[in-house]
Amino acid sequence: MHLLRTLRHLFDGKRDLTPFFTRQAELLCQCSDTLVRMLADVDPVQWNMLQREIKSSETQGDALLQDFREQLSERVMGSLSRTDLSTIAMSMDDSLDVIKDAAKAVQIYKPRKIDQQLRDLAQLIRGEAYALQELLPLIWHIRHKATDISLLCDRVTEMEHAADDAYEEYIGYIFAEEQDMREMTKYKNLAETLEKATDSQKHVADCVRLMVMRFLHE
């Protein structure tokens, strides 16, 4: 309840929903930072603690999204589409969910080692999150910041493509090098979940890009 009261105070009297998107991006960056820390070492005790941190941030994200929906329904949005804004907000929440799933997978699987390729995927997740943190506040200045928005969307896309390449190379590596089928399955599943997280953040950028295209052609 305290979180919801704080959010309402931030939003009162404003048509601009930047505080919501800013907070969503902060949570995404926090989760991605924590995921990088989680994959930095093989320590089940640390994994448990960090997984709880990510779960807490994801829960805050759920409450934030619910309050956003209430605020959006009460506002005159002018030239920005309610549907587009809602889609972006939900896509950000989905990204938090996937990072939470990745952290939970590490905690459950307890892999014997964390290969550098998995750490690299986590770094790309974090890179995308910080690019989205730069991107989302620009939405409310879409008329004057369309080029900046496009460049940041491109940056997210480039990182997602790098993650695709890293994932494919890693799958080939573990099938060639890992003899323990049980461990190989763990590594494969972890890599898939991490790659899915990069996809989910690219989807946010794609939603923003589509909104810009609609705005500029109306």
Overall description:
With 218 residues, the chain is mainly α. It has helices at residues 2-11, 18-38, 44-73, 82-109, 116-135, 142-177, 181-217. It is 83% helix and 0% strand. It is globular. The longest helix has 37 residues, at 181-217.
Q: In sequence order, what are the helices and strands, one letter per element?
A: HHHHHHH
- Number of helical segments? 7
The general outline is globular
| Helix percent band | over 70%
Name the average pLDDT. 89
- The low-confidence runs, each spanning 5 or more residues with pLDDT under 50, are 3-14
Strand content: under 5%
Give the beta-strand count.
0
- Main beta-sheet strand count, sense and barrel state: none
The Cα radius of gyration reads 18 Å
Structural class based on helices, strands and sheet pairing: mainly alpha
| First and last CA, distance | 40 Å
Topology, pairings included?
Layout: H1 2-11, H2 18-38, H3 44-73, H4 82-109, H5 116-135, H6 142-177, H7 181-217
Helix pairs in contact: 1-3, 2-3, 2-4, 2-5, 3-4, 4-7, 5-6, 5-7, 6-7
Output the keywords.
7 helices; mainly alpha; globular; disordered N terminus; 218 residues
Briefly say what this structure is.
The protein is an all-alpha fold. Helices cover 83% and strands 0% of the residues.
